[in-house]
Design brief:
OB fold (Dihydrolipoamide Acetyltransferase, E2P), 5-stranded mixed beta barrel, elongated, alpha/beta, Rossmann fold
Length: 403
Amino acid sequence: MQLELPSGNAPVLTVSQLLRSARDTLERRFPLQWIAGEVSNLRPAASGHLYFTLKDEAAQVDCVMFRGRAAHLDWELADGQRVEARALVTLYEPRGRFQLNVESMRRAGLGPLYERFLKLKERLEKEGLFDPAAKRQLPEHPKQIGVVTSLAAAALRDVLTTLRRRNASIPVVVYPAPVQGEGAAAKLAQALAAANRRAECDVLLLVRGGGSIEDLWQFNEETLARAIRASRIPVVVGVGHETDFTIADFAADERAPTPTAAAELVSPSRERLLARVAELGFQISRSISRKIGNAMQTVDGLQRRLVHPAERLRNSSQHLAHLAARLVTATRHELAQLRARLATLEARLPGLDHHAVLARGYSLTLNARGEIVRAPGAVALGERIVTRLARGEIESEVKKKSP
């Protein structure tokens, strides 16, 4: 809405119009860019948004980082931190307040080093140096543990204390090397190579405490990453704090969030081992008792089935007598059946004797070939035939045949 002054045609802006115009001008004039400063007055909101002030020695500016952007931070923002914020310069119109809308943020000094870190990580990853399939399995019960770090490092004390607490019976060998400063990566690689030549440990810990990206940079060197992968002994890397990631972490067979965690990862707890031994002893004892109980029951069963030789002989004799009695009975029965069948056959024999048939007035006629004549077709006219009677034979000639 525009109001005209009584004195002329010059437009009159509302506050909203003025601030909107100023905001648009600011956002066009200052696109997204990196701004360095120190965080102060940090106020995390329940909504997940972050409100804070970014300042230097001479000035300060209000900032907001909305929840969706803040969720991508992989480190914890705190007052006093020096950061670099990629932000949009704008105005918060309801309050007429100049502020920065922060899109992303990194800890100060990460710019060039972080870019270098990302490029090296991408190149080595494409090469396959971080391939999970190439990772070596950590020993479940190492006979000796090697530690590669500085003798003056606080991380060494933490690691030794943890290893002693968890299992003091496992020997530890320290391979000293600097963990910070120019050339430290090469020294660490040499220490890993020495540990492999000596081949006296089952697993190696490469550790150092926390620090800035500059302090930890030697663990981002390609030389050290390749030495880790060239090691025949599994390597666990525990560098810095949980949020610190280095190239060595990606090259390692296992990454631990801290040096102490690395020591816990490779050392089996003595208390747990003793508890496991006790549990296994109890299981073995119970298994043996069960086997003995089963064997005793088996013996009892066999004992009940055991028969005295005299009793066994008596039983066998009785059984033999029973079989003999059954055999005699069966034999008698079979003989009786055979006699009855023989008598039947004998009774049928007279009826089958042809002499008896002839004696009853029948006759038997044979042709010239001595074959029994059963039909007229068996003889020819004029053929001589013989007729047998009960007493004697009659020889005749065929004069006529009738069907």
